[in-house]
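Researcher: Here's the sequence for the chain we discussed earlier.
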Amino acid sequence: MNSVIEARSLTKFYGGRRGLEDLDLRVQPGEVFGYLGPNGAGKTTTIRLLLDFIRPTRGTATVLGAVPRHGVDTRRRIGYLPGELSFEGRERVAELLQFFGDARGGVSARRIGELAERLELDLSRRIRGLPKGNKQKVGLVQAFMHEPELLVLDEPTTGLDPLMQQEFLEMVREARANGQTVFMP
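Model: Thanks. This is the structure I predict for it:
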């Protein structure tokens, strides 16, 4: 079976400063892959390269069988939680999540509600002014809600209390049991 993520000699320099150098990596379907390293080791740079937010200095990568330069169809197959969330706006949580769901080809309000209930996320609250932990829950719902083949979760438990961290880990176990691949630093 083909790898979900594969990198060969993946390298990124920012001017003369190294972001990542000569990464070889292979993540198999259905695997939960913990990508560990100290701050500054290149974990977020790796994610940005794999998701085509930045381009490598050298080396190659494939995600879901394609070279990053993902079109809409490939992006719909990925659930992404960035390490730093920035949700601004006056809309309610439910409205923002439905917008994300529609952009991913249609996610039911029921599915969004189920995930929000699991994470104890109040869908009627306004995005503006949400505490960090609740913004993290919004990010988790939007990453998981369309049941993507690949979940890329950068620091997924930041701001979550221990009980919600346990619920998140249960969600990861369920994703794996459903054949989804999870990549997380």
